[in-house]
Amino acid sequence: MIWPTLRLSLLVVSIATILISVAGTALGFLLAKRQFRGKDLLDAILTLPMVLPPTVTGYYLILLLGRRGLLGKPLYDLTGWTVAFTWIAAVIASTVIALPLMIKSARAAIESVNEDYEIASRIMGKSEFETFFRITLPLAGRGILAGIVLSFARAFGEFGATLMLAGNIPGKTQTMPLAIYEAVVSGEDERAKWLALILTGISVTVVYLTNRLSRPKKG
Amino acid sequence: MLDARIRKQLGSGNGHTLTMDVTFRAGSGITVLFGSSGAGKTSILRAIAGILSPDEGRITLDETVFFDSSAGINLPMQQRRVGYVFQNHALFPHLTAEQNVMYGIRTHTRHSAHERARELLALLGIRKTAESYPHQLSGGEQQRVALARALATDPLIMLLDEPLSAVDIATRSRLGEEIAAVQQRTGIPFLYVTHSHNEAVRLGNTMIVVDEGRVVQEGPPLEIFNAPRTAPVARVVGAENVFVGKVLSHQPEDGITEIDLNSCRIEAPYNGLPIGNRVTIGIRSEDIIVCRERLTQTSARNVLPGVIRNILHDADKTELIVGCGVDFKVSVTQAAVRALSLEAGSPVYLLIKARALHLLA
User: For residue B99, which residues of chain A lie inside 8 Å, CB to CB?
Assistant: First the structure.
């Protein structure tokens, strides 16, 4: 009975990590390179999920996406479908919770790239877009990869916001952390132990392997 | 022909602001932008390249308008076709020397880009570094790669920001000559920022002196160094008189080397350089003595007759511009000017100790 939970968790965290990597890098770039009005406010709002209790973030997500929510209601009226209490809700919850970590890492990594390299590329006739993919991204690569790993670990362990938006439905929205909580509460000590060990093992392995792979090559 | 009129309010680190307001033209050959650090030289290059947008002005290169505030034109830097050589090279650290050069090549096939990159590396004598990463190269090699990389984009003008400042002294003069040779071979106009007298006279066809965001004098480098037109120019170019001469003969037993400065023979300390070698000589303006009559019993090895052409007064110093076939600037006190009743047109003799002549690197 562990496998379905693990499989769901891996599915949720894989999709969340992909979304986080793309959106986090794009937002990190925006904050690092662009000057615009309301930048500090945007930065503060994007950081909120990191400082608020996940249950509060989850509550806001319900207000936004729930069946009677700001976006959720028109969607429900139109299609009769709501994202709440589906596995997609778990993806959304863990994405929102872990995104700030990715944004911060990506922004720091992009800002750490000496601007002269980017200017040199632009002067050599390359667009901003091409410069980003051929110069900035490779040079910021290690910082961005570190951000992805951190976000993965955070998303994998996501509990509070997932519980609020996706609920705790075994086989449907019950991810590993939720299953561990339920096992402990209902006195299934053996199950709780194995779930916790597997979750820890996967997180440690991912962080360890990434550290090894991203170690600078000796030139 | 580059035609630039640039106005820009610049903020600097220490809260002090500088208004850059320059108008100049740069044609073929090497045009040197000379000035002390913080004078706004680099900002001028950055404005031409499009890294920095002027508040007001117009920048054109031949028929292409780079920037025109009144017409609302500001060509993005990737469309300006300038080659830029950074002070710190700015080679892409994750690419090899050859990949750095290939990065900007505007051809369509991979094969021809490859060939062109090899050709440029060969032109700068660094073909063997093709597979090396920037951190494996010496400062001189890095700067050669940076030059090759800038040339690879087929630029219409090259902008060089103190390209020799991060290179060790031993490599500097050779690399300088190579830069001049590349300029001649390609025929591309070079705009060259430096604060080195030696680089300015060795490389510059013309020189533009920049001080506190303004152009204060333009002309041949030697003329400006030795006969600045105004006191502020004299302050920017410093106390050094600069000459490019040729080694004529050595008298090692007397500790003397004779040098030819524009058909004016001058004695310098023995240096052992090959006869006929070109040397850049500096004589500080405060190391020259002015006499109204010809002294014979003197230890000064050089006594040159001349005529005062101009007298520049500044707050704390006075400089005479004296023509002796070549021009010298001579720093004197106001008291000496009065005591010798010196004025423009006065005939004088300049006394210069051999020891006061030094080689500029």
Answer: none
Kindly state whether residues B97 and B153 are assigned to the same domain: yes
Check A122 against B78: CB less than 8 A apart. yes
Are A219 and B77 in contact (CB < 8 Å)?
Answer: no
| Residue B11 CB coordination number (10 Å) | 9
Domains and CATH numbers, chain A: 3-213 (1.10.3720.10)
- Phi, psi angles (nearest 5°) of residue B130: -50, -40
Domain final position from B236, B262, B288 = B236
* Per-residue pLDDT tens over the stretch B44-70: 999 999 999 999 999 999 999 999 999
Same domain flag for B249 and B152: no
- CB distance B149–A135 less than 8 Å? no
Q: Which of B86, B94, B135 sits opposite A139 (nearest CB)?
A: B94
Among candidate residues A131, A134, A133, A166, the one with its CA nearest the CA of residue A22: A133
* Closest listed residue to residue B267, CA positions, set B299, B297, B296, B306: B299
Give me the interface pTM, i.e. the ipTM. Answer: 0.82
Answer yes or no: do B34 and B179 share one domain.
yes
- Summarize pLDDT for A123-155 with one digit per residue, the tens: 999 999 999 999 999 999 999 999 999 999 999
CATH classification of the domain holding B265: 2.40.50.100
Residue in chain A nearest B136 by alpha carbon: A219
Q: Which residues 58-97 of B are in CB contact (within 8 Å) with A?
A: 76-84, 86, 88, 90, 92-94
In chain A, what residues touch B133 (CB-CB under 8 Å)? Answer: 219
Which of B351, B360, B361, B331 has the alpha carbon at shortest distance from B267? B351
Pair (B45, B142) in one structural domain: yes
Q: Domain check: are B199 and B345 in the same one?
A: no
Q: Does residue B249 share a domain with residue B180?
A: no
Domain membership of residue B143 as a residue range: 2-236
Single out the residue in B236, B255, B281 at which a domain terminates: B236
Measure Cα distances from B98 to B94, B131, B160, B334 in Å. 12, 6, 20, 60
User: Strand pairing partners for B279?
Assistant: B245
One domain for residues B126 and B247: no
Give the list of residues 6+ apart from residue A35 with CB closer than 8 angstroms, or none.
Answer: none
Q: What count of CB pairs under 8 Å joins A to B? A: 57
Bridge partners, residue B319, by sequence:
B312, B331
The Cα–Cα gap between B127 and B115 comes to: 12
Domains of chain B: total? 2
CA max distance for chain A = 66
Residues in A touching B104 (Cβ below 8 Å): 124-126
Two tokens, residue A169: 């439905």
Specify the pTM.
0.83
A123 neighbourhood in chain B, CB within 8 Å: 49-51, 77-78, 80, 82-84, 153
Which residue does chain B place closest to A217, by CA atoms?
B94
Q: Same domain, yes or no, for B220 and B351?
A: no
